[in-house]
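Entry 14. Ran structure prediction on the chain below.
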Amino acid sequence: DQSYFLWKLSDDILERTVFPLADYTKQAIRMYAAEKGFEEKNREKESMEICFIKDDYRSFLRREIPDIDSRIGSGDFVDKDGRKIGRHKGFPFYTIGQRKGLEVAFGAPRYVLKLNPGANTVMLGVEDDLKTQFMQIEAPHLTDSIEEVTEMIEQGCITIKIRYRSKAVPCTGLIKIDSNLYLVRFAEPVQAVTAGQYAVFYSNKDNGIIIGGAKIASQRGIAQYINRFNG
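Output, structure tokens:
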């Protein structure tokens, strides 16, 4: 299901768009490819990360930006209190939620919680530190008005995906923080909310049809707004 990536398309684009594989399952396409002689292609593993990058994205960065190591260089791993707990290769080589490849032993699993490009630091913590029931989004693009979507949320009709491969989680609240920023409340904790990714809204009333989405904003300062749901 590639629908997650279509949320920004407007009606005038969608009405002229054709999806020739829409009625086929992935398995059916694999069988068709094999029947047409593309057996090697059929056996290829599915891409689990960035589909147009064949190897690790870190190698891709180094090819495209040959001086990235000298421009950015190594930095500090820090804990939630800002204490230095190790060294890393440079913030671009890490992603929120990452556990493997940290190359530092802590005696128990550690996960990337935050990246600070300005200071070139990478914050680490335990898995529970990644979980949150709230998220800030910016400039939502929706097929219905904010008021209508808010009403649908109150009726329990909206779920949200925060990344392509994540499950859609029921949304239980949406409030405006300022002219461009909104606060979302989930029915259950989600993991590794990442600024710059997309939050895509689905309507349960219409068989899971997309009703829009938004860019996930920086989560800095979110704590001061959470009590508005109780106000």
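The mean pLDDT is 90. Will compare against last week's run tomorrow.
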